[in-house]
Specification:
Elements (H helix, E strand, L loop, with lengths): L3 E7 L2 H11 L4 H4 L1 H5 L10 H14 L7 E8 L8 E10 L2 E8 L2 E10 L31 E4 L6 H5 L1 H7 L1 H17 L5 E10 L8 E9 L4 E8 L2 E9 L9 H5 L11 E5 L4 H12 L3 E6 L3 H11 L4 E5 L6 H5 L8 E4 L14 H25 L3 E4 L2 E2 L1 H4 L5 H20 L3 E4 L2 E2 L18 H12 L1
């Protein structure tokens, strides 16, 4: 059937705070823009269970007989960015079954499979369980198996205020238990470094204490996948979540020095756009370790840029804030001039688009990888000094991983742009090597995928420039 759109909305930070206050999930991926930037989400992500409960509330408010809901299967397939518009769409109707999706620009973010039967009793279980932790727990994957406990909601009234129609149909205690699934995953186990993958619940007439009991049934080191059993008033089921890798810590300057000659890059006066972390930070450390001087820009990560400056030394490293979507001149004038090499690692959130061609996703990549790079090249070209300018293309241009077609298209267009800019500005020597997948915050995926060391890759490229 053709998708039937029922509702649309944007989740803002006020919604994040309201959900966290109601159920206790304050994982920084949802609440802290700086911390979220260093996760696979790349920005504050809406709680997956919040999207699920919004979908169920919308159905209840629009007359679907939610009192007869007997099972819920939810798959959280993509992160929903805060302030991004999403829609709720019915994608399938059968006898006693409804399939709905939370979508953004045609991409499926959350898929729900709902089964219906006789009405379930409304549980009135008495409060039981521990208060959610104030700070998300951190556990090694090997320590997760066998963890058990029970959580209670941090305060009464939050569920009814946010999901009144659903609470009327299913009972407040049952809705609170569903909301607490987010808190179990995001605050307890896996905890801080978690990604909620799926939730399967069966609703019944069985009474029980309010809150949500949990027990880790399995932790699979191959895929970093954790499976939990859940039990609450009038429901039971399982949750699956990935234990994602912690943020990638840049290597020390001392460790990088052991890999290069101390005077190997002594003649370089380098500008690294987007050098506060990841590939840019590795490049800055290599140049400094090889005797060169660097200026590093950041868009949001001031603390990370200043930490890198402290590691290298203020005399050899300057930092400045830089937005690739704005004109470069006013932003870079404080860093001086005379750069011999410029490395362009400005990047946005690397996420898959929708089905087919997602124009909005492509435009987001193009704004940074095409427009932003062209502005920087024009500024450097107009200055007139000879500069070696590196545009990092990607092996994804030919490999084209599923869901990253728009990213690959933008990088391929960037290669053509480099050739055109070299014709326009003779003082610029522009290279566009196709970089492999490297281990960074956004590529530290679960399940794990092969990724190369940024220091090793960039060391080879820097040496090729000599």
């Amino acid at each position: 059937m053709e998708a039937e759109v029922l509702a649309a909305r944007r989740f803002g930070m006020a919604d994040q705070e309201r959900f966290a206050a109601a159920f206790g999930d304050r994982n920084p991926m949802h609440m802290d823009a700086e911390a979220a930037r260093r996760t696979q989400a790349g920005a504050c992500a809406v709680h997956g269970v919040h999207g699920l409960l919004w979908a169920l509330e919308t159905l209840a408010a629009q007359g679907v007989r939610m009192a007869g809901l007997r099972s819920v299967k939810a798959e959280f397939t993509r992160f929903i960015a805060v302030d991004r518009e999403v829609v709720l769409a019915v994608v399938g109707r059968e006898d006693a079954r409804l399939r709905v999706e939370v979508q953004a620009e045609g991409a499926r973010m959350t898929a729900l499979d709902l089964r219906f039967g006789a009405d379930v009793a409304v549980p009135a279980g008495a409060a039981a369980g521990d208060a959610p932790p104030a700070v998300a727990d951190v556990r090694d994957l090997s320590e997760m198996e066998g963890v058990t406990g029970r959580l209670a909601v941090p305060g009464r009234g939050g569920a009814e205020g946010m999901f009144p129609a659903l609470c009327a149909a299913l009972g407040r205690a049952r809705v609170e238990a569903i909301g607490l699934a987010s808190t179990v995953v995001g605050m307890v186990v896996p905890g801080l470094h978690s990604i909620f993958s799926g939730l399967v619940l069966t609703l019944s007439d069985d009474a029980g204490p309010a809150g949500l009991g949990y027990a880790v049934r399995r932790s699979d080191a191959r895929f970093r996948l954790v499976t939990l059993g859940l039990e609450g008033p009038g429901l039971a089921g399982t949750a699956t979540a990935f234990a994602r890798y912690p943020p990638v810590v840049p290597p020390s300057l001392g460790a990088v020095r052991d890999t290069v000659d101390p005077k190997e890059f002594a003649e370089r006066r380098a500008l690294v756009i987007g050098g506060s972390r990841g590939i840019g930070a590795a490049t800055a450390l290599l140049i400094a370790a090889g005797g060169g001087s660097v200026a590093v820009t950041y868009r949001h990560g001031r603390a990370e840029a200043e930490a890198l400056q402290a590691e290298i030394g203020a005399g050899c490293c300057r930092v400045a804030q830089y937005d690739a979507l704005a004109e470069p001149g006013p932003q870079l004038e404080g860093l001086g001039s005379g750069f011999t090499h410029v490395y362009y690692f400005a990047t946005g959130r690397i996420a898959g688009g929708g089905q087919g061609f997602d124009r909005a996703a492509f435009d987001g990549f193009a704004a940074v990888y095409l427009d932003g790079f062209a502005r920087l090249a024009a500024w450097l070209g107009a200055v007139g000094d000879p500069v070696r300018l590196l545009y990092p293309s990607s092996t994804y241009v030919t490999a084209r991983p599923k869901g990253l077609g728009e990213y690959a298209m933008a990088k391929a267009a960037g290669e053509v742009l480099c050739m055109e800019l070299a014709r326009t500005w003779p003082n610029l020597s522009i290279s566009a090597p196709r970089l492999p997948r490297m281990f960074t915050d956004q590529t530290a995926s679960v399940p794990p995928l092969p990724a190369e060391d940024p220091v090793a890759v960039m060391r080879a490229i820097l040496r090729d420039e000599a």
